Amino acid sequence: MTHHLSFRGVTVAAEPGQSVAAALIAAGITDWRTTGKGGRPRGLFCGIGVCFDCLITVDGIPDQRACLVAAADGMRLGDAEPGADVEPGADFEEAGRTGGEDVARA
Amino acid sequence: MSHVHDVAVVGAGPAGLAAAVEAAEAGLGVLLIDTAGQPGGQYWRHYDRIHARPEDRIGHHDWPVFTRLRTRLDELAAEGRIRYLPGHQVWLITRDAEGAFTLRVTAATSTSATAGRRSGDADPTTLAAHALILCAGGYDRQLPVPGWDLPGVLTAGGAQALLKGHRTPAGQRAVVAGTGPFLLPVATGLARAGVRVAAVIEANATVGWLRSPAGAVSAPGKGVEALRYAASMLRHRIPYRTRTVIREVLGDGRVEAVRVARVDGDGRPTGPDEEIAVDLVALGWGFTPSLELPLMLGAETAQDTDGSLVVAVDDSQRSSVDGLYVAGEATGVGGATLAVQEGRLSALAVAADRGHPADPARTRRLRAAVRRARRFAAAMHRTYPLPRAWPDWLTETTLVCRCEEVPYADLRRAHHDLGAEDARTLKMLARPGMGWCQGRVCGLATAGIAAWLGGRETGVDDLRPLATRSLAVPVPLGELAALAEETTPAEALDEGGRNGD
Amino acid sequence: MSVDLVVVGAGVVGAASAYFATLAGLRVVVVERGAIAGGTSSAGEGNVLVSDKEAGPELDLALYSQRIWREDLAEHGDLWEFESKGGLVVAASEQGVASLRALAVHQRRAGVEVRDVTRSELPDYEPHLAPQLAGGAFYPQDAQVQPMLVAAHLLRLARAGGAQVRTRTEVTGFLRAGDRVTGVRTSSGDITAGAVLNAAGTWAGGIADLAGVHVPVLPRRGFILVTQPLPARTIRHKVYAAEYVGDVASSDAALQTSPVVEGTAGGTVLIGASRERVGFDRSISVPAIGTLAAKAIALFPMLREVRAIRTYLGFRPYCPDHLPVIGADPRAPGLWHACGHEGAGIGLSAGTGKLISQALVGQRTDLDLTPFAPDRFPPAEEAPR
Known about the structure:
Shape of chain C: globular
CATH architecture of the largest domain in chain C: 3-Layer(bba) Sandwich
Helix content of chain B: 25-40%
CATH topology of the largest domain in chain B: FAD/NAD(P)-binding domain
Radius of gyration of chain B: 23 Å
Low-confidence stretches of chain C: none
CATH class of the largest domain in chain B: Alpha Beta
Number of strands of chain C: 18
Shape of chain B: globular
CATH class of the largest domain in chain C: Alpha Beta
Number of helices of chain C: 9
Distance between the termini of chain B: 36 Å
CATH topology of the largest domain in chain C: FAD/NAD(P)-binding domain
Number of domains of chain B: 3
Radius of gyration of chain C: 20 Å
Helix content of chain C: 25-40%
Largest interface: B-C, 49 and 68 residues
Largest sheet of chain B: 7 strands, mixed
CATH architecture of the largest domain in chain B: 3-Layer(bba) Sandwich
Structural class of chain B: alpha/beta
Order of helices and strands of chain C: EHEEHEHEHEEHEEEEHEEHEEHEEEH
Mean pLDDT of chain C: 94
CATH superfamily of the largest domain in chain B: FAD/NAD(P)-binding domain
Number of helices of chain B: 16
Oligomer: heterotrimer
Low-confidence stretches of chain B: 116-120, 208-218, 486-501
Strand content of chain B: 15-25%
């Protein structure tokens, strides 16, 4: 049975036993996050859990290594904004606009 | 923690599997911890066993050795003589007053944590053992090159793992580049999977193991292996370009081509650049051992023939730390056959040291085999050295550290302007090795750059600061917190706790 | 060789002293046993704080240092990531808020800016703070630097002004003319000097011993946890619990931890601060880092799933009365000290360097150094345990 995962609104197929990274690459997707400083695209590099380049959000849990996580049917893969959705319901953009900087520097 | 195991084995690759099985058969209670979901390590990485197909084993060496070990692991685990904990990583090891080792572990992925809970076994966080055999293996050694962080550039082992472990070729048209014999199985494996391999780009002069008779003769079968690869390269029409390196990986958002050039014996370009269109680049410069756990425990190190930092061990795989044994790549990169022998030897030593003496003839035979394999490994290391002048390939903007996105210019400035003379100071001032991977990928390069800028050969003092990690792998703060006594927010922030004098 | 000043130690205090002494026209050599900024300067959070200090000489020095960071050194601030982020001290109970307010009264009188923060205002400062806190106080003057970059750049600027920096050079003894210190013996030769400044941080007691004088600097170990990189401004200020002030002032040998949480330019979040007197033991303490994590989560519940990627430890140079040692040593003329800043050495380094350079050239110092006098301690054998 083929699994179906979703990534940025695209359905990605995976054979049972494939990793999330393999499923994405097999679907022609070679990058799934951007770096914090340079905004560089990143995907798989070491493939064995050493380099942490392939971080991805899996079912809402951020910063999972795509090379180690086994693909499963119905999995939702999101951009790995590092730590971005660690607090359910928090909205960083909103907080950034209304928050402490103005207060701090007022 | 409830139970102190006789011995804990970390890593279920060739060395760890052999060590765990041997130790259990010698009568010891064994704990076996491994990052992966199934045994085999990098060398015997294979498709999920539940969904295996017969063809998955093609291209695997010594597969029967693995299946025999795996069968014994299954049996011994079923008998309760090995407690096998896959999908977990050790992040800290400490020792108590009696000398027992305490291992703190964390799930490798969120799904392995779930699996641990499902099995009914409470997800373990703290385990203990009287003795420790570390068999953490290794991974591809990397040298930075302009453009190496573009998607589509993988480590050679990564391309191989994707193929063997997940039946997925990482591209359609590839070059496999770097140095060493491992480039050949990666190239032929990709070709077998239908990838057009445009070239193997080898920095050194030759398929050296045929030219290194001492080594080849002392490792029976290796010469035959080399010939088999040569034939396979020929069959798939893969050009083998020696004394050649990738000067730059080109592409906009992903790999589109590489620029390659001929080099002299030190790795300095001698010929004009040539462009090869590819969508996959697999890079490997030999292997680097994972040393964070033995270094955490204070084990003495040495520099191996290939320049890598390794743990110094005696002829029974005992490290300088009492009760700590190390086997496999961490004591010197040498491949699976050597790792299996070292794993067995280390288990026999633990058993002997804990009152279960082994058959002396068997120990002698294993030691002789290890010596022979070490000689062969050393010959290989000498044949495929890192090009001495590799830092010359770097431009000011070449990223040395992929995690922290540190360009070579920052390292040069830290050295020239700020007085960072040693690797540690270079790391602290320019931040290579300070990101997610904690220097696993850029550690060798940063150590090499520190030495290069300082005008010296890379030595142990350059390598050690980049191989040492205070936490062996990242660990959720919630798991760390659980190690402290339960603390409520009110208690944690209780300003009544102002315990001044 | 012969110079005006030998600075022993290339940490942040030695670097600041060398920088200001060079500016003041002295010929300076810095000698360092290891690498630049390799000791306690490499193991801190880079605090430039006024908030954690009760009124007194240390607060006066902190306020003076504020001026040096923001005026004398302002043009170099970007080099060492000077960030005037402000500090937020929070309390869990009304009683805690009351003691924060009481502390603020004295601090304001000394010249510290403090804003009272009510419970409902806390989220405006830090949206991820635990909701059940009772209130806090905001200190806009609190700032952060990258301490190794401070030391390295100050040494670079000093070198540009003619100073020399000799690493891997260990002081093995002093040159004397009677009581007077006339230079140092080092592992790579003698250096004669008009003055020798002991800026050896946690190891300054040993240097003083070589000169036959007692300066009781002791190590007080601290751990810091470093998280994975988080999005910019996840944690905006230096945030800590009110108990931190009490722990800083304590002399207890047992483990104390008070949560101190802040973001960095690199995106990682630093979590401190533990304090224990265990000598120079470099082993990782599970109770220490576990408690730090637990208390940080109590402040910021969102940190529970965030991963720690490393931890580091350092040894604060701690004197029994929690004040640094700054000035000339009358027991050994020619010997000066700038050491013992405990956990505040990064922030206090700027002021210390400037004051010591003023004293060295015989100027009247901007701040009275009497409270920091090197001979204020009882002799070694009578020192309290």
